[in-house]
Protein backbone atom coordinates (compact mmCIF):
# COMPACT_ATOMS: atom_id res chain seq x y z
CA UNK A 1 0.00 0.00 0.00
CA UNK A 2 1.35 3.39 -0.98
CA UNK A 3 2.02 5.81 1.85
CA UNK A 4 1.39 9.49 1.15
CA UNK A 5 3.80 12.27 1.98
CA UNK A 6 1.23 13.67 4.42
CA UNK A 7 1.10 10.36 6.30
CA UNK A 8 4.88 10.27 6.52
CA UNK A 9 4.94 13.80 7.93
CA UNK A 10 2.19 12.97 10.41
CA UNK A 11 4.06 9.85 11.53
CA UNK A 12 7.31 11.77 11.87
CA UNK A 13 5.63 14.49 13.91
CA UNK A 14 3.98 11.91 16.14
CA UNK A 15 7.24 10.05 16.64
CA UNK A 16 9.03 13.30 17.49
CA UNK A 17 6.34 14.15 20.02
CA UNK A 18 6.58 10.72 21.66
CA UNK A 19 10.37 11.00 21.79
CA UNK A 20 10.11 14.44 23.39
CA UNK A 21 7.62 13.14 25.98
CA UNK A 22 9.86 10.19 26.80
CA UNK A 23 12.83 12.52 27.07
CA UNK A 24 11.05 14.80 29.53
CA UNK A 25 9.87 11.84 31.61
CA UNK A 26 13.43 10.54 31.77
CA UNK A 27 14.78 13.96 32.67
CA UNK A 28 12.20 14.37 35.40
CA UNK A 29 13.09 11.02 37.00
CA UNK A 30 16.04 12.36 39.09
CA UNK A 31 13.59 14.75 40.79
CA UNK A 32 11.51 11.93 42.26
CA UNK A 33 13.74 11.35 45.31
CA UNK A 34 12.61 11.59 48.93
CA UNK A 35 14.56 14.79 49.60
CA UNK A 36 12.50 17.98 49.89
CA UNK A 37 13.22 21.23 48.06
CA UNK A 38 11.16 24.35 47.53
CA UNK A 39 11.48 27.60 45.60
CA UNK A 40 9.67 30.69 46.89
CA UNK A 41 9.32 33.56 44.40
CA UNK A 42 8.48 37.00 45.82
CA UNK A 43 7.35 39.24 42.97
CA UNK A 44 7.67 42.98 43.71
CA UNK A 45 4.93 44.33 41.47
CA UNK A 46 5.44 47.82 40.10
CA UNK A 47 9.23 47.66 39.84
CA UNK A 48 11.42 47.85 42.94
CA UNK A 49 14.01 50.61 43.17
CA UNK A 50 17.22 48.60 43.27
CA UNK A 51 19.25 51.80 43.38
CA UNK A 52 18.05 52.46 46.95
CA UNK A 53 17.89 48.78 47.91
CA UNK A 54 21.65 48.25 47.47
CA UNK A 55 23.90 51.33 47.60
CA UNK A 56 27.70 51.57 47.25
CA UNK A 57 29.40 52.63 50.47
CA UNK A 58 32.94 53.25 49.21
CA UNK A 59 33.85 56.92 48.78
CA UNK A 60 33.92 57.00 44.97
CA UNK A 61 30.84 54.84 44.50
CA UNK A 62 28.74 56.77 46.99
CA UNK A 63 29.87 60.08 45.48
CA UNK A 64 28.62 58.98 42.05
CA UNK A 65 25.35 57.81 43.62
CA UNK A 66 24.81 61.08 45.50
CA UNK A 67 25.64 63.22 42.48
CA UNK A 68 23.11 61.40 40.28
CA UNK A 69 20.30 60.86 42.80
CA UNK A 70 20.61 64.20 44.56
CA UNK A 71 20.44 64.86 48.27
CA UNK A 72 17.04 64.27 49.85
CA UNK A 73 17.33 67.64 51.57
CA UNK A 74 17.37 69.24 48.11
CA UNK A 75 14.50 67.17 46.70
CA UNK A 76 16.61 64.23 45.54
CA UNK A 77 16.31 60.51 46.32
CA UNK A 78 19.73 59.66 47.76
CA UNK A 79 19.83 57.91 51.12
CA UNK A 80 22.29 59.25 53.66
CA UNK A 81 25.47 57.22 53.83
CA UNK A 82 25.15 56.88 57.61
CA UNK A 83 21.69 55.28 57.29
CA UNK A 84 22.88 52.34 55.19
CA UNK A 85 23.07 48.87 56.73
CA UNK A 86 26.69 47.71 56.22
CA UNK A 87 27.34 44.35 54.58
CA UNK A 88 30.50 42.69 55.86
CA UNK A 89 33.15 42.11 53.25
CA UNK A 90 31.69 44.19 50.40
CA UNK A 91 31.52 47.95 49.68
CA UNK A 92 27.73 48.05 49.65
CA UNK A 93 24.96 48.70 52.13
CA UNK A 94 21.26 47.91 52.32
CA UNK A 95 18.37 50.30 52.81
CA UNK A 96 17.79 50.87 56.54
CA UNK A 97 14.40 49.12 56.33
CA UNK A 98 16.22 45.91 55.40
CA UNK A 99 18.24 45.85 58.62
CA UNK A 100 16.58 42.55 59.68
CA UNK A 101 18.46 40.88 56.80
CA UNK A 102 21.90 41.80 58.15
CA UNK A 103 22.19 38.69 60.40
CA UNK A 104 21.27 36.51 57.40
CA UNK A 105 24.02 38.20 55.36
CA UNK A 106 26.48 37.68 58.22
CA UNK A 107 25.54 33.99 58.31
CA UNK A 108 26.42 33.71 54.60
CA UNK A 109 22.85 32.85 53.58
CA UNK A 110 21.93 35.97 51.58
CA UNK A 111 23.13 36.71 48.04
CA UNK A 112 22.65 39.81 45.90
CA UNK A 113 22.61 39.32 42.14
CA UNK A 114 23.43 42.61 40.44
CA UNK A 115 21.79 44.12 37.37
CA UNK A 116 19.39 41.39 36.19
CA UNK A 117 16.86 42.06 33.45
CA UNK A 118 14.89 40.78 30.50
CA UNK A 119 17.18 40.04 27.56
CA UNK A 120 17.03 38.07 24.33
CA UNK A 121 20.82 37.77 24.25
CA UNK A 122 23.82 39.64 25.73
CA UNK A 123 23.66 43.29 24.66
CA UNK A 124 25.87 46.33 24.35
CA UNK A 125 24.69 49.92 24.09
CA UNK A 126 25.30 49.69 20.35
CA UNK A 127 23.07 46.61 20.19
CA UNK A 128 20.38 48.49 22.08
CA UNK A 129 20.26 51.10 19.33
CA UNK A 130 18.78 48.43 17.03
CA UNK A 131 15.11 48.12 18.00
CA UNK A 132 14.82 44.47 16.96
CA UNK A 133 17.51 43.47 19.48
CA UNK A 134 15.49 44.66 22.47
CA UNK A 135 12.98 42.71 24.54
CA UNK A 136 9.46 43.59 23.49
CA UNK A 137 7.75 46.57 25.18
CA UNK A 138 10.50 47.62 27.55
CA UNK A 139 9.33 49.79 30.48
CA UNK A 140 5.73 48.49 30.20
CA UNK A 141 4.44 46.99 33.47
CA UNK A 142 2.33 44.13 32.05
CA UNK A 143 4.84 43.16 29.37
CA UNK A 144 7.86 43.18 31.66
CA UNK A 145 5.99 41.34 34.40
CA UNK A 146 5.07 38.67 31.87
CA UNK A 147 8.66 38.44 30.60
CA UNK A 148 10.07 38.05 34.11
CA UNK A 149 7.45 35.43 34.94
CA UNK A 150 7.89 33.53 31.68
CA UNK A 151 11.64 34.13 31.08
CA UNK A 152 10.74 34.75 27.42
CA UNK A 153 11.41 38.25 26.08
CA UNK A 154 10.99 37.99 22.31
CA UNK A 155 7.23 37.44 22.28
CA UNK A 156 4.23 36.45 24.38
CA UNK A 157 4.15 33.20 26.32
CA UNK A 158 1.26 31.16 27.64
CA UNK A 159 3.35 29.57 30.40
CA UNK A 160 5.73 30.68 33.14
CA UNK A 161 9.11 29.28 34.07
CA UNK A 162 7.84 28.05 37.42
CA UNK A 163 5.02 26.21 35.66
CA UNK A 164 7.40 24.68 33.13
CA UNK A 165 9.56 23.33 35.95
CA UNK A 166 6.40 21.83 37.43
CA UNK A 167 5.67 20.22 34.05
CA UNK A 168 8.96 18.31 34.31
CA UNK A 169 8.53 17.26 37.91
CA UNK A 170 4.85 16.35 37.93
CA UNK A 171 2.69 16.35 41.04
CA UNK A 172 4.27 13.96 43.52
CA UNK A 173 2.00 14.72 46.48
CA UNK A 174 -1.46 15.58 47.74
CA UNK A 175 -1.25 19.13 46.42
CA UNK A 176 -0.29 20.54 43.02
CA UNK A 177 3.44 21.15 42.92
CA UNK A 178 3.07 24.88 42.35
CA UNK A 179 1.03 27.12 44.65
CA UNK A 180 0.27 30.85 44.57
CA UNK A 181 -0.70 32.92 47.59
CA UNK A 182 -0.74 36.02 45.41
CA UNK A 183 -3.58 35.23 43.01
CA UNK A 184 -3.33 34.09 39.41
CA UNK A 185 0.17 34.50 37.98
CA UNK A 186 1.75 33.54 34.67
CA UNK A 187 4.81 32.29 36.58
CA UNK A 188 2.75 29.39 37.96
CA UNK A 189 1.16 28.24 34.69
CA UNK A 190 2.69 25.27 32.90
CA UNK A 191 1.97 23.67 29.55
CA UNK A 192 0.44 20.70 31.35
CA UNK A 193 0.52 21.84 34.99
CA UNK A 194 -2.42 23.49 36.73
CA UNK A 195 -1.39 25.63 39.73
CA UNK A 196 -3.28 26.02 42.98
CA UNK A 197 -4.16 29.53 44.21
CA UNK A 198 -4.96 29.84 47.91
CA UNK A 199 -5.85 32.65 50.34
CA UNK A 200 -3.02 34.30 52.23
CA UNK A 201 -4.38 33.18 55.61
CA UNK A 202 -6.59 30.50 57.12
CA UNK A 203 -7.59 27.23 55.50
CA UNK A 204 -9.17 26.56 52.13
CA UNK A 205 -12.58 25.08 52.98
CA UNK A 206 -15.24 25.39 50.29
CA UNK A 207 -17.48 28.36 51.05
CA UNK A 208 -21.19 27.67 51.69
CA UNK A 209 -20.92 23.98 52.53
CA UNK A 210 -21.29 22.28 55.90
CA UNK A 211 -23.01 23.20 59.11
CA UNK A 212 -26.70 22.98 58.11
CA UNK A 213 -28.89 20.31 56.50
CA UNK A 214 -29.45 22.54 53.46
CA UNK A 215 -25.74 23.15 52.89
CA UNK A 216 -24.96 19.47 53.40
CA UNK A 217 -27.55 18.62 50.75
CA UNK A 218 -25.89 21.11 48.39
CA UNK A 219 -22.56 19.44 49.00
CA UNK A 220 -23.98 15.99 48.23
CA UNK A 221 -25.57 17.33 45.04
CA UNK A 222 -22.23 18.79 43.96
CA UNK A 223 -20.54 15.42 44.55
CA UNK A 224 -23.19 13.67 42.46
CA UNK A 225 -22.61 16.12 39.61
CA UNK A 226 -18.87 15.53 39.85
CA UNK A 227 -19.45 11.80 39.53
CA UNK A 228 -21.39 12.08 36.27
CA UNK A 229 -19.65 10.98 33.09
CA UNK A 230 -20.95 13.08 30.20
CA UNK A 231 -18.53 11.48 27.76
CA UNK A 232 -16.92 14.69 26.48
CA UNK A 233 -13.47 16.12 27.08
CA UNK A 234 -14.67 19.54 28.27
CA UNK A 235 -16.78 17.97 31.01
CA UNK A 236 -13.93 15.65 32.02
CA UNK A 237 -11.54 18.59 32.27
CA UNK A 238 -13.99 20.60 34.36
CA UNK A 239 -14.64 17.66 36.69
CA UNK A 240 -10.91 17.01 36.98
CA UNK A 241 -10.27 20.62 37.99
CA UNK A 242 -13.11 20.55 40.51
CA UNK A 243 -11.95 17.23 41.98
CA UNK A 244 -8.46 18.60 42.35
CA UNK A 245 -9.76 21.73 44.10
CA UNK A 246 -11.96 19.73 46.48
CA UNK A 247 -9.16 17.30 47.35
CA UNK A 248 -6.63 20.12 47.83
CA UNK A 249 -9.13 22.02 49.96
CA UNK A 250 -9.64 19.07 52.27
CA UNK A 251 -5.89 18.36 52.54
CA UNK A 252 -4.94 21.96 53.24
CA UNK A 253 -7.75 22.56 55.71
CA UNK A 254 -6.64 19.50 57.63
CA UNK A 255 -2.94 20.39 57.46
CA UNK A 256 -3.39 24.04 58.46
CA UNK A 257 -6.21 23.54 60.93
CA UNK A 258 -4.15 23.12 64.09
CA UNK A 259 -1.88 25.44 65.99
CA UNK A 260 1.67 26.06 64.83
CA UNK A 261 4.69 27.24 66.77
CA UNK A 262 5.96 29.30 63.86
CA UNK A 263 3.04 31.74 63.70
CA UNK A 264 4.40 33.69 66.67
CA UNK A 265 7.49 34.53 64.62
CA UNK A 266 5.28 36.78 62.47
CA UNK A 267 3.66 38.60 65.41
CA UNK A 268 3.06 42.30 64.79
CA UNK A 269 3.18 41.97 61.00
CA UNK A 270 -0.30 42.46 59.59
CA UNK A 271 0.61 43.17 55.98
CA UNK A 272 -0.21 40.86 53.07
CA UNK A 273 3.39 39.84 52.42
CA UNK A 274 3.95 38.57 55.97
CA UNK A 275 0.62 36.72 55.88
CA UNK A 276 1.52 35.05 52.59
CA UNK A 277 4.95 33.97 53.81
CA UNK A 278 3.45 32.62 57.03
CA UNK A 279 0.97 30.62 54.94
CA UNK A 280 3.83 29.25 52.82
CA UNK A 281 5.75 28.33 55.97
CA UNK A 282 2.69 26.49 57.33
CA UNK A 283 2.42 24.45 54.12
CA UNK A 284 6.14 23.64 54.26
CA UNK A 285 5.63 22.60 57.89
CA UNK A 286 3.06 20.05 56.66
CA UNK A 287 5.21 18.82 53.78
CA UNK A 288 5.57 15.27 55.10
CA UNK A 289 1.90 14.73 55.90
CA UNK A 290 1.01 16.15 52.46
CA UNK A 291 3.54 13.86 50.77
CA UNK A 292 5.39 16.70 49.01
CA UNK A 293 9.05 16.44 48.03
CA UNK A 294 9.16 19.37 45.60
CA UNK A 295 7.19 22.61 45.82
CA UNK A 296 7.20 26.02 44.14
CA UNK A 297 5.45 29.02 45.69
CA UNK A 298 4.52 32.39 44.20
CA UNK A 299 4.13 35.32 46.61
CA UNK A 300 2.98 38.80 45.57
CA UNK A 301 4.10 42.14 47.04
CA UNK A 302 2.68 45.20 45.26
CA UNK A 303 2.98 48.97 45.37
CA UNK A 304 6.51 49.48 43.99
CA UNK A 305 5.47 51.84 41.15
CA UNK A 306 6.72 54.84 43.09
CA UNK A 307 6.25 57.79 40.71
CA UNK A 308 5.75 60.17 43.64
CA UNK A 309 6.71 60.43 47.32
CA UNK A 310 9.25 57.73 46.56
CA UNK A 311 11.41 57.86 49.69
CA UNK A 312 8.50 57.40 52.08
CA UNK A 313 6.63 54.80 50.02
CA UNK A 314 9.72 52.72 49.25
CA UNK A 315 10.82 52.73 52.88
CA UNK A 316 7.37 51.51 53.93
CA UNK A 317 7.47 48.66 51.39
CA UNK A 318 10.95 47.53 52.40
CA UNK A 319 9.88 47.80 56.04
CA UNK A 320 7.39 45.06 55.20
CA UNK A 321 9.86 43.03 53.12
CA UNK A 322 12.77 42.99 55.59
CA UNK A 323 10.91 41.76 58.70
CA UNK A 324 8.78 39.31 56.70
CA UNK A 325 11.85 37.71 55.11
CA UNK A 326 13.59 37.47 58.50
CA UNK A 327 10.51 35.85 60.09
CA UNK A 328 10.25 33.42 57.18
CA UNK A 329 13.95 32.57 57.49
CA UNK A 330 13.56 31.95 61.23
CA UNK A 331 10.46 29.81 60.61
CA UNK A 332 12.32 27.62 58.11
CA UNK A 333 15.20 27.28 60.54
CA UNK A 334 12.81 26.21 63.30
CA UNK A 335 11.17 23.69 60.96
CA UNK A 336 14.52 22.17 59.99
CA UNK A 337 13.89 23.17 56.36
CA UNK A 338 16.31 26.07 55.97
CA UNK A 339 18.67 24.19 53.66
CA UNK A 340 15.77 22.89 51.54
CA UNK A 341 14.05 26.20 50.73
CA UNK A 342 15.38 29.05 48.57
CA UNK A 343 13.58 32.39 48.47
CA UNK A 344 14.24 34.92 45.71
CA UNK A 345 12.88 38.22 44.43
CA UNK A 346 11.64 39.30 41.01
CA UNK A 347 10.19 42.63 39.79
CA UNK A 348 8.96 44.27 36.60
CA UNK A 349 12.18 46.27 36.28
CA UNK A 350 14.36 48.70 38.21
CA UNK A 351 13.78 52.43 38.52
CA UNK A 352 15.71 55.38 37.17
CA UNK A 353 18.66 56.64 39.15
CA UNK A 354 17.71 60.19 38.22
CA UNK A 355 14.74 61.47 40.24
CA UNK A 356 11.48 62.20 38.45
CA UNK A 357 9.17 65.11 39.17
CA UNK A 358 7.12 64.89 42.34
CA UNK A 359 9.84 63.17 44.31
CA UNK A 360 9.41 59.96 42.35
CA UNK A 361 11.34 57.59 40.13
CA UNK A 362 10.48 56.36 36.64
CA UNK A 363 10.53 52.93 34.95
CA UNK A 364 13.98 51.56 34.18
CA UNK A 365 15.47 48.14 33.28
CA UNK A 366 18.27 46.21 35.02
CA UNK A 367 17.78 45.63 38.74
CA UNK A 368 19.36 43.98 41.78
CA UNK A 369 17.73 40.93 43.38
CA UNK A 370 17.94 39.06 46.68
CA UNK A 371 18.33 35.30 47.12
CA UNK A 372 17.99 33.80 50.62
CA UNK A 373 18.28 30.30 52.04
CA UNK A 374 20.45 27.71 53.72
CA UNK A 375 21.83 26.49 50.38
CA UNK A 376 22.68 30.02 49.21
CA UNK A 377 26.34 31.01 48.92
CA UNK A 378 26.18 34.48 50.42
CA UNK A 379 27.82 37.44 48.72
CA UNK A 380 27.43 39.68 45.71
CA UNK A 381 27.26 38.32 42.16
CA UNK A 382 27.39 39.88 38.74
CA UNK A 383 28.49 43.36 37.75
CA UNK A 384 27.33 46.48 39.58
CA UNK A 385 26.59 49.28 37.10
CA UNK A 386 28.59 52.50 36.98
CA UNK A 387 26.26 55.06 38.57
CA UNK A 388 26.75 57.78 35.98
CA UNK A 389 23.86 59.33 34.06
CA UNK A 390 24.57 58.70 30.40
CA UNK A 391 27.51 56.52 31.42
CA UNK A 392 28.64 53.17 29.99
CA UNK A 393 25.77 51.22 31.59
CA UNK A 394 22.96 53.75 31.06
CA UNK A 395 20.86 53.32 27.90
CA UNK A 396 19.32 56.76 28.52
CA UNK A 397 20.54 59.80 30.41
CA UNK A 398 18.36 59.01 33.41
CA UNK A 399 20.03 55.94 34.86
CA UNK A 400 18.38 52.97 33.16
CA UNK A 401 20.85 50.11 33.44
CA UNK A 402 21.51 47.79 30.54
CA UNK A 403 21.29 44.36 32.23
CA UNK A 404 24.47 42.32 32.42
CA UNK A 405 22.62 39.20 33.64
CA UNK A 406 19.46 37.75 32.11
CA UNK A 407 16.31 36.45 33.76
CA UNK A 408 17.06 33.12 32.04
CA UNK A 409 20.44 32.80 33.76
CA UNK A 410 18.99 33.84 37.13
CA UNK A 411 16.13 31.35 36.84
CA UNK A 412 18.32 28.55 35.51
CA UNK A 413 20.63 28.83 38.54
CA UNK A 414 17.64 28.37 40.83
CA UNK A 415 16.15 25.60 38.68
CA UNK A 416 19.44 23.68 38.72
CA UNK A 417 19.52 23.72 42.51
CA UNK A 418 15.88 22.60 42.53
CA UNK A 419 16.92 19.54 40.57
CA UNK A 420 16.23 20.29 36.92
CA UNK A 421 18.92 18.45 34.90
CA UNK A 422 21.17 20.54 32.68
CA UNK A 423 19.79 18.87 29.55
CA UNK A 424 16.25 19.99 30.48
CA UNK A 425 17.07 23.63 31.21
CA UNK A 426 16.42 24.76 27.60
CA UNK A 427 12.92 23.29 27.91
CA UNK A 428 12.25 25.64 30.83
CA UNK A 429 14.33 28.57 29.50
CA UNK A 430 14.18 28.49 25.69
CA UNK A 431 16.63 31.38 25.24
CA UNK A 432 19.24 30.13 27.68
CA UNK A 433 21.57 28.96 24.93
CA UNK A 434 22.13 32.60 23.89
CA UNK A 435 24.08 33.27 27.10
CA UNK A 436 27.58 32.08 28.00
CA UNK A 437 26.79 31.01 31.58
CA UNK A 438 23.86 28.93 32.77
CA UNK A 439 24.82 28.95 36.43
CA UNK A 440 25.63 32.21 38.23
CA UNK A 441 27.21 30.49 41.23
CA UNK A 442 25.10 31.75 44.13
CA UNK A 443 23.72 28.30 45.01
CA UNK A 444 25.73 25.61 46.77
Automatic annotation (TrEMBL):
Q: Which domain of life is it from?
A: Bacteria
- Name the InterPro entries for this protein: DUF1501, TAT_signal
Q: Which PROSITE patterns match?
A: TAT
Query: One Pfam annotation, family name?
Result: DUF1501
- The name this protein carries in UniProt is DUF1501 domain-containing protein
Amino acid sequence: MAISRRQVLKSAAGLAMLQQMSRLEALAAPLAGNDYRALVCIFMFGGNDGNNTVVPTDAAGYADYLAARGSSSAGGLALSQSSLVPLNGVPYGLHASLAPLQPIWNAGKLAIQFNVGTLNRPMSKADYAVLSNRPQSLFSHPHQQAQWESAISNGPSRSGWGGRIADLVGNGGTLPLIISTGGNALFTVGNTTTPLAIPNSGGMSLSGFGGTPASNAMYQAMNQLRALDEGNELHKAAVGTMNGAVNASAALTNALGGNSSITSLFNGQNNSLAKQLMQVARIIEARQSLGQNRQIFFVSHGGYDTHSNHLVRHADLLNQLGPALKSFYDALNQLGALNQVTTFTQADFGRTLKPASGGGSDHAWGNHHLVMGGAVKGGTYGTFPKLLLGGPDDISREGRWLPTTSVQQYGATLASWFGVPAAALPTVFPGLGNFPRTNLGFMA
